[in-house]
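User: Could you walk me through two proteins back to back? I'd like the raw sequence and the structure tokens for each, with a short line separating them so I can tell where one ends and the next begins.

Assistant: Of course. Protein one, sequence then structure:
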Amino acid sequence: MNSEKEIDLSKAVLQKIIFPEKINVDVFVKRFDLIHPFINGNKYFKLKYNLQYAKENNFNTILTFGGAYSNHIHATAAAGKIFGFETIGIIRGEEHLPLNPTLSFASKNGMKLFYVSRSDYRKKNSEEFYAWIKKKFGDVFIVPEGGSNQLAIKGASEIPSLIEIDYDYVITASGTAGTLSGLIVGLNNYKKVLGVAVLKGAEFLNKNVEFFTSKTSKQKFNNWSIVHNYHFGGYAKINRELLIFINQIEELNEVKLDPIYTGKMLYAVYDLARKNYFEKNKTIVCIHTGGLQGIEGMKDKMNFILSGKI
């Protein structure tokens, strides 16, 4: 990003977390959710070098992909408006009016939304799909779903250098493994890295890490792992236990967590600590990946679950 005046990394404070029960490790959250109203969390790091590359290579338009509640779609639309790019969003599924808060924000920030069926969306990485994009939209710079590509890994690899204390583990929620891969590369086998899968049946994340890290570095990394049993039923699936935990964390710490990514991540850390997964007195730093915009679209569902109606 050639102009970072809109983003203030100094606001990413490191905050110690108080849990509902005492645990035998120290847990901190690196508050990247505070660096910008819209381009925050891991999205800043993922977009940084993508936007720089697009500008240096004279692309006027950025095209990307996502679901109806995608944090990446939301952040890319905002970045396009701020940094002077046209943006196109290929959205999974059918259009539903009125637009939800995520897509409404994207549209208001100038993103042109195009909807494709779920079956066609699964082909988004095929040569046939890329040919369709070229024919329909012309010469656009394509950023993959979730923003995860080699330029994103390069950006995310800068995160560890911004953590101002000594620690034993760095932990992030993982949907595509882009941020996780960046952390692994950035730490260069120095600390332990743990990913918390937020999707059910996400064993493919392990392959994604191996792919991204091998493309970025010739070194073999053995300091990472992924836990796969804290998805709460699947992507964007939630239950009462998770929501109560999220509310407790907010009351105790004044830290907002979204129920799709950061809520599941911090719950996993809490539960693993109670089960003695970590050695006693270790220091853990969790990455707040933002995503708070997604709360608005799930508010009704969250209220129903907490009220016991569903």
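----
Protein two, same layout:
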Amino acid sequence: MAVVEGAAQAGVRTTPFAADLADIRRLAHLLPGALPVAVNGIRVAASVRPHRVVIEGGDDRPVTMPRTAFQVVYPDSTVMIDAGLDRETHDSFSTPDKREPYYPAAFAQLQRALDAARMIVLTHFHADHVAGVTRAANFSALAAKTVISVATAQCLLNTPHKPHLTMTADQINQFIIFDYGQYYPVAPGIVLMKAPGHSADHQMVYIALASGREILHSVDVGWVLENIAQIKGKAAPWVKEDVPAVIGQLRWLNGVLNNEKNVTLLVTHDDEHFAALVKDGTIGGDLTI
């Protein structure tokens, strides 16, 4: 391992992350079928955190961090990337006297999109990514088309993010559970990338569109694009990460940001970046039902 240079966590060791975009691009075209034509996103809730918690060395200004899910649109179907969360689960992150923003109409739209999707992919076990499936009234129907890694299955079963999200082995076995090496082409144009660090089961998602554009969803390696741009990690005391692994992934993503001009980064909890991508048409702001 090498020592981080130019990051706020001076002296913190880093685990190099060596994903190969050439290999990932090849795998994106491996499976037969039309490539996706669009990516849409939705914000179903938000947390407001001090900037100093979001990024190491930050200040006290408030940062709105949306809880998002994304939809990959094909000519004849859709694939959902993560599932958002119900109101009860969202409220479990705050206190009764200080509830944070929740958007019921957006979550209802997300529920309809989950119902209509051909496939649902859960990137990792954290509540804001899985509860839209695990807490759904029609859980069995959604689980039957939901893809999770072996590592995610183990986390959901053994270390649930919230006590009320505890699942039984019988429930876990209703998912489509699989394992893979470093990359996995889960659908035409979509490649999953193992990136443990934020959590033991964390994955990123690469998407190649029919237009030739490329989107790389970094999920929760950084909470906001600034984490990637500055190669600075989170500073939330309640977040227990493999910091060397996360810094290595931030460094790799920083290289993509600066050198791969055809690749657009998505970041789960960056409200300003989400709004900018919707404004310039990179992603759609409404889900296709």
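The chain has one domain: 2-279.

Let me know if you want the two compared in more detail.
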